[in-house]
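Journal club prep — side note

Before the paper discussion, L.F. wants everyone to see what a predicted structure for a comparable chain looks like in token form. Sequence:
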Amino acid sequence: MKIRWIFFFFTLLLLLLLFGSAEQMPVHSHRFNSSRLLVLPLKIQDIPSKQLPFTHNVTLTVSLSVGTPPQNVSMVLDTGSELSWLQCNTTRMSQPVFQPARSMSYSPVACSSPTCTIRTQDFSIPASCDSKNLCHAILSYADASSSEGTLSTDSFIIAGSNFSGTIFGCMDSGFSSNPDEDSKTTGLMGMNRGSLSFVSQMEFKRFSYCISGSDFPGILLFGDSNFTWLVPLNYTPLIQISTPLPYFNRVAYTVQLEGIKVSDKPLQLPKYVFEPDHTGAGQTMVDSGTQFTFLLGPAYTALRNEFLNQTTNVLRVFEDPNFVFQGAFDLCFRVPSNSTSLPQIPSVSLLFHGAEITVSGQQLLYRVPGEMRDNDSIHCFTFGNSDLLGIEAYIIGHHHQQNVWMEFDLENSRIGVASVRCDEEGQRFGVHH
């Protein structure tokens, strides 16, 4: 489970993520025709995973083409990242790569380019140049893995629309602490509100996705659409702050978590538990690049205790103090492996200002691959403790966004949600299994 708590350097992006805003830096002139709707299948992809902190084994991937002539690529959809990147190291052909030498429209960004020498409102940031005077990009993750390459531009072709001059990182060294993860995808599509993100460069006013909980593909939409068949969307505003704070990510999709219910019982927690403190720590981010959901210690402990209390007679706790799934999930259960279904368990609802997301059934318990005790499989509660990973935030992962229509309305600075069957909604747009 890789936490997308990412800091982009090529020295520009470290401070941009912490302090920059999308409005400060107009770096792309391409305009998207808002009357068009771009439709892409969104796939849940299983990836072999070592059970270590900061690795994950399920990602959301979209397929598109890059370059002239077009090369097919598969990218992880990540609303928690800014700079999109592609693997470009052709010496590692065991994994999907983009080959810039084969693209007539590919162009590396010179370190003298305004794109590489942008000054933010808060600080002047010098350009980072490599030996060829090209703009050098370094991405760094919380698990100490990193990747280096060249900031570049090329044409991205999505659902028949060509977006020329799109800025991305063409990465040629390293990347993940989990090579199995990298071997399945060509790169990552950064979708947060930063100026260099994919959605900002394309100037999309709105995008939506719906993640299917079944084997059917989900759906990703760029642009406006009239969802007349949907249950009305409930909107919650995006939280914005004008003052730079050290632990507040100003380009994340931040919403206000106001409470949590187990079944119909609200957790008795003071409001300040869900609010960022004076350093900015404690924001709630919607992140499609993270699999599960993470809560800060006080909220996690209260939820853990109440869920245990309400499932005492139906679930058998896995009593092993040395077993913590992915470093943050310490509430696990033993379920007879011959069981055809899980017992009835209470739902968990995340309450936001104006909206809520309810998680129920199998989405609350994740069967840990390869873990058996006698004839029991191990299932872990899909809410993790941020404190165990040193993460100063609430993170709503994509596992709990399954079968929820998620609309990111950038024009009105809000997120809309509605419970739907994502396989059925995909078929309405022509996306089939």
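L.F.'s comment for the group: The first strand starts at residue 7 and ends at 8. Keep this in mind when we get to the figures.
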